[in-house]
Structures are given as structure tokens and as C-alpha cells.
Amino acid sequence: MNSTLLRLSKSKTTIAILLLAFLVFSGMIGFRIISGYNWIDALYMTVITITTVGFGEVRPLDDQSKIFTVFLILTSIVIVGYVISVLTEYLLSQNSFEELKQKNMQKRIDQLQDHIIICGYGRNGTQAAKKLIAYNKPFVVVEQNKELIDKFESELVNFIHGNANEDEVLHRAGINRASTLISALPNDADNLFVVLSARQINKNLRIISRASQETTYNKLKLAGADNVILPDKIGGDHMASLVVVPDLIEFIDNLSIVGRSHVNIEEIEVAKLCSDADEKTIRDLDLRNKTGCNIIGFKNGAGEYIVNPEAEMKLGVNSKIIVLGRPEQIQKLNSVYNIR
User: Which of 164, 185, 208, 245 could form an SS bridge with 190, CB 3.0 to 4.6 Å?
Assistant: First the structure.
């Protein structure tokens, strides 16, 4: 609806400008032919007639020129009045449309619960947003660059225009209701400030921060970040691993965790698989026979990870399992246990 109104407003503006150009052109032709003016004088007479500024004629007009001038004045009153009204409407509609768009977006953000806040929409922020979209996770992006927002804004991405270092901006992003904050700003000092502010506002918030320098890692941890990612280090390690163990790394790269229809590996809360988890073991789940998936990892309630857990391991209510399988096997597991 909003886009339709904007297109209609632009169309009316185009018509108004064309009418004004036609009026000026007609006036010039008329004064040139009827009064015998040169092109400069014809343009001058046309402009002072249309704008009714009251300047004198280049030379006295004959009867035919006077009749043409009267006709030009009457026509210009209608056309110029229409042009002014359309341009005024267009300028007001631009401001109103922008305000309406911001209000609608803020309304959507205010309805979010347990969402993710991404601070910065650079390379890391964009990749994080793509993965969250693939998993249908609600999120808000805080970005200071308005041109970047206008370029990537869509129904899938909710943007807050502002500095993530300001508490008021974080509150607009719903930090009190959020479950996770990802600070992906290019400057380590900015990330540190965001982490400090976010931790002060929401003690239960999970905070993931980007860092450019290894010396910033401990500072971000002390500031309250749960996880600190060093993109350059990860990239370098990955490239070196492709030299040392290329087949293993290629196999891991081929494990898709993005897009529900192509997932090979996934983490699942044990509570979604059985209600009496305290009394069950991994063997009791029998996922291999039921779905074809293999359990390759286990995380207990204390947060400890176990690779390739034993079949007799007790599950526990707050535990999670990591399963590996082909996409169709993962889909079967989600279907059997009604996991969304």
C-alpha cells in the first residue's frame, strides 16, 4: 500500500514537471513567432509572464501579442498552481512515508520476544543475518549508516538507525526482551563499549562479540561477552587446515547447517525428545533405528561437552544432543518428534 502511494506520488510529480516544461516551451514559441523576439527575449518574456513578477516587456506588445500573453497567464495560473501543489504534496509524502515506515518497523520490533540484536551490518553482521533468516530466528539490526539501511532494508530485516553505543538505541532494539546480542562492529573499542552497556542493561543476555585483535579477547570477556570471535584467526586457521588435513576440512565444510531443507547436523534439546529425560539414556532414545541419525555429541546441564558419548549415558532434563545425518534423516527426526 505504501509503495503504491509512493509510486503514484512520483507519477504525479513527473506529469507536473512535464506540464511546466510544455508551458515554458509553448510560451517561447508563441513570443518567437507572434512577437518576433529572439530566443533569449522569448524565454525572458515567458518566465516573467508565468511567474507574474511584474517586470516590463522587452518592447511594447501589439494586439496579437497581448491576446497571447493573456492566454499564457491564464494557462500558467492553472498549471503552475498544479505544479506547486503536487511538489508540496510529494515533499510532505516523502517525510510522512519515512515516518510511517519507521513507526511500522518500531511496532514490529516492540512485539518481538527472545529475539537477537545484531550491532553492525558489515560483512560479519550480514552473514549472521543470513543464517538467522535461514533458521527463521527473529532479529533486529542496529546500524549507524543510513545509506546502508536504505540499501538492504526489507520485510525480512528490521533495522534501527542509530549508534549501538547509546543505551537509548539498544532499548529501541528491545534489549530487555532479547535473548542474544551479536556485536559485529568493525572497531574493537566500540564492541567493548556495546558489551559493557548491554551487560549492564540485561544480566541474562547472551553476548557474542567480534574482535579484530587477540589482545582484545580477554577485555571483551571481562566486559561480559559470553563468546568472542576472531574472524581473521578463524580464517587463517581454516586455510592452514586445508593444507594439513584437506579432506577432513572439505568434509566438514560440506556439512550444511543453513536452510532447513539441507541440514546435516543439528543440536536438539533432550526435553523435546522425551519428557522423562532423567530416567533415560542415549540408548533408550534409539534415534539410529527411528530416524537414521547418529548422536555425535552431548552437552549436559552443567554445560560440559562430550564427543561421541556412550550409549549408557544418562540424558538429564537440561541436556542437549548433537545429531548427524543426511538432510532427509534430519527432516524425519524433526517430523517424528514434531520439532520446529
Answer: 185
Residues 157 and 167: their CA atoms lie apart, in Å, by 21
> The C-alpha cell of 20 is what?
511546466
Q: What is the DSSP string of 140-170?
A: EEEES-HHHHHHH-BTTBEEEES-TTSHHHH
Q: Are 208 and 148 in contact (CB under 8 A)?
A: no
Helix (H, G, I), strand (E, B) or coil at 254: coil
State how far the Cα of 299 lies from the Cα of 80, in Å rounded to an integer.
Answer: 74
Greater model confidence, 121 or 18: 121
Looking at residue 294, the DSSP 8-state letter turns out to be E
Residue 138, amino acid = P
Q: Among residues 179, 214, 176, which one has the least CA distance to residue 197?
A: 176
Residue 189 has pLDDT above 50, yes or no: yes
Angstrom CA distances, 328 to 144, 241, 294, 324, stand at 42, 30, 13, 11
pLDDT of 279 over the 80 cut: no
- For residue 73, is it left (φ>0), alpha (ψ between -120 and 50) or beta? alpha
Which residues neighbour 104 within 8 Å (Cβ) at sequence distance 6 or greater? none
Q: What is the pTM of this model?
A: 0.63
